[in-house]
Amino acid sequence: AILGTETSSKYEIKDHLGRRVYFAVEENGCFDRKLCSPLRAFTMRIADPAGREVIRVIRPLRCNSCCFPCFLQELEVQSPPGTIAGYVVQNWDPFLPKFTIQNESKEDVLKIIGPYATCGCFEDVDFEVKALNEMTTIGKISKYWSGFVNDVFTNTANFGIQVPVDLDVRIKAVMIGACFLIDLMFFENSLDGL
């Protein structure tokens, strides 16, 4: 903090009972973290408790503006590493955060639609997971409100992913990637929401 350097992010992924099932580490250069911050390219390596990498999330450097709809966010999820599980693709919309979850063949599977305002002051922020028709909600990715001090003065955040139990396991891995993308795009800089 004294030198103003940004370190690689580390995450714990827990099940609904609070048990750690995966540990994730972001890999990229100091240049990417400092100059490109929430837009930065990275490789996220997600390992099981035995340390075996089970999911890899790859995000190239892309734009993050409704004014530039030609080079929007996209990330690739591999599970196991080296085998594409699917993609998360940002969709252009002038008002709402929208994403498409695609399978390994780049066929659309699900949609994610966020709220107009994502600051989340004093409440949870929900991104709804919907069927392709965007009418039926089947789950959500939520950033949980963790209190004023935590949200403003720390980089810690708690997210939850709720999807149907019978959803394809590869698409569940892609949903983890979507959660990381949403975190970086909308909640990376805790003071930005105020």
Can you put this structure into words, describing what you see?
The structure is a single chain. The chain has 194 residues and is α+β, with helices and mostly antiparallel strands. The protein has one domain (10-190). The protein has three helices and eleven strands; from the N terminus they run ββαββββββββαβα. The chain has helices at residues 30-36, 148-153, 169-187, and strands at 10-14, 20-27, 42-47, 53-59, 74-78, 84-91, 98-103, 108-113, 125-130, 137-144, 158-162. The chain has an eleven-stranded antiparallel β-sheet, with helices on one face. A hairpin with a 5-residue loop joins strand 5 and strand 6. The chain is globular and about 45 Å long. 24% of the residues are buried. One of its GO terms (cellular component) is plasma membrane.
Distance between the termini: 21 Å
Number of helices: 3
Number of strands: 11
Percent strand: 35-45%
**Helical content class:** 10-25%
The tally of structural domains comes to 1
Low-confidence stretches: 1-5, 190-194
Strand and helix order:
EEHEEEEEEEEHEH
The structure class reads alpha+beta
Shape: globular
Strand order of the largest sheet: 1-2-3-4-5-6-7-8-9-10-11
Provide the residue-averaged pLDDT. Answer: 84
The radius of gyration over CA amounts to 16 Å
- Biggest sheet character: 11 strands, antiparallel
InterPro entries: Scramblase, Tubby-like_C
Pfam family, one: Scramblase
Organism: Dicaeum eximium
GO molecular function: phospholipid scramblase activity
